[in-house]
Amino acid sequence: MHPSNASILAGDRLALARLLTQVENDTLTGRAALGELFPHTGRAHLIGVTGAPGTGKSSLVNQLARHYRLLPTPQRVAIIAVDPSSPFTGGALLGDRVRMRDLSGDPGVFIRSMAARSSLGGLAAATADMTQAFDAAGFEVILIETVGAGQSEVDIARLAHTTLVIEAPGLGDDIQAIKAGILEIADILVINKADQPGADNTERALRSMLELAHPMPHVFRHHGQFTRENLPPAADTPLWLPPVQRTVATQGSGIADLAEAIYQHRQHLEHSGEWRRREQTRLESEMETLLQETLVARWRANLSENHYQTTLAALFERRISPHAAVEQLLSPTLYA
Ligand SMILES: Nc1nc2c(ncn2[C@@H]2O[C@H](COP(=O)(O)OP(=O)(O)OP(=O)(O)O)[C@@H](O)[C@H]2O)c(=O)[nH]1
Ligand SMILES: [Mg+2]
Predict the structure, then answer these.
(1) Which one of 63, 189, 269, 298 has the fewest beta carbons within 10 angstroms of its own beta carbon?
(2) Residues with Cβ within 8 Å of residue 85, at least 6 apart in sequence
(3) Ligand 1: does its nearest atom lie under 6 Å from the Cβ of 112?
(4) 52 CB under 6 A from ligand 1?
(5) What CA–CA distance (Å, rounded) separates 92 from 108?
(6) How far is CA 133 from CA 50, 89, 165, 183, 289, in A?
(7) Please, which pLDDT band fits residue 34 given cuts at 50, 70 and 90?
(8) Which of 180, 181, 284, 273 is CA-nearest to residue 226?
(9) Cβ(133)–Cβ(37) under 8 Å?
(10) Is 91 a pocket residue for ligand 1 (Cβ < 6 Å)?
């Protein structure tokens, strides 16, 4: 094993920080390192925290991290703040640094932010790689903060074992806009800023939306966006109905109950076999994606540019259909 990977396994923060940079830039060195570390992954609990801007996600993540650090058996906690909106996380991150100040200096906590890259698919993939690095380095809990309800949040939620969707009163009236999409990814709903007026209304609205959103078939498909999504669960598989938790992140209230709900969800995943099933579908889909990319790249490398351009021109002139174009490209010997 490469010495720096051995250092990461042994808990060396500097070696880990270097790997995270390699991983974020998707370098060959980073890939090689992750390859070597992969057998040491698969233990961490990945917890996604998502919701509209300003609902208190970073404050909650901070409180949860503190909670895990103060357990009788302290858990090592990694925090990944994903900011898909801008290539520079400077501003947001500065705020987060302030809110997470009390965690800094604790060697059992590692905070890392990740800015948007060229594609959103790339963002989810880079986040996945980063969680692998933390997982190998022995972090038992990995908290992933994302803003909003876009495709990248949904992709990142698929990565997480447990997804928290954070709401806050007041934003509440446009709760309809929140919305089915994000409710679908929620394993636990959190009403943060429960000290603010309107928490009761928010909770009522959420609960009625949950009832609408969770007729049986929906629960079955929960999170299961992959190839085997429509397999019905075994008859004795218990269902998970997302609980609604209230918190005041600025005061630390409701955090222990929230952590308990997270623990219950983990128990549910393990006992129902869902934990293993999710890991397997995720790994399979990751491999499939790589397989397709690799095959296409290899094939393109052997294709004559001339042949490609001729086919493209025929397509543009509507002499051949896209289907026929693909056939033609796949039989280069006929036209070489
Ligand atoms: N009253 C009250 N304010 C809170 C609570 N939690 C967070 N805040 C405040 O809400 C503001 C936003 O908190 P953040 O934790 O940065 O929220 P966020 O969701 O991470 O924000 P973005 O990352 O910018 O989307 C800060 O001023 C917090 O101090 C709460 O429970 N009650
Ligand atoms: Mg934040």
Answers:
(1) 298
(2) 116, 147, 148
(3) no
(4) no
(5) 23
(6) 22, 21, 25, 29, 20
(7) very high
(8) 284
(9) yes
(10) no
Mutate to test the pocket of ligand 1, among 49, 55, 58, 59 (most ligand atoms within 8 A of CB): 59
Residue 252 confidence (pLDDT) above 70: yes
Tokens 């076999």 correspond to 273
Task: Please tell me the distance from the alpha carbon of residue 26 to that of residue 20, in angstroms, as a whole number.
Answer: 9
- Rounded CA gap, 94 and 30, in Å? 27
Closest by CA position to 23, among listed 41, 50, 45, 47: 41
Enter the pTM of the model: 0.83
Report whether pLDDT(101) > 50: yes
> Any idea which ligand is nearest the CA of 251?
1
Amino acid in position 147: V
C-beta of 255 in contact with ligand 1 (< 6 A): no
State the chain's mean pLDDT as an integer. 83
Rounded distance between C-alpha atoms, residue 167 and residue 56, angstroms? 8
* Contact status, residue 48 vs residue 160, Cβ threshold 8 Å: yes
Quick one: angle between helices 255-272 and 274-302, nearest 10?
70
| Coil, helix or strand at residue 306 | helix
User: Which is higher by pLDDT, 141 or 124?
Assistant: 141
Q: How far apart are CA 323 and CA 294, in angstroms?
A: 21
Task: Name the residue with tokens 């269902």.
Answer: 239
Query: CA 166, 145, 16 angle in degrees (round to 5)?
Result: 155
Residues 233-247 have pLDDT tens digits of 555 667 899 999 999
- Indicate the burial class of 290 (C-beta count within 10 angstroms; 0-12, 13-18, 19 or more): exposed
Ligand 2 geometric centre to CA of 298 (Å): 41
Give the pLDDT confidence of 152-203 residue by residue, as tens digits: 677 777 789 999 999 999 765 555 545 666 777 899 999 999 999 989 988 8
Q: Which two tokens stand for residue 157?
A: 């939620």
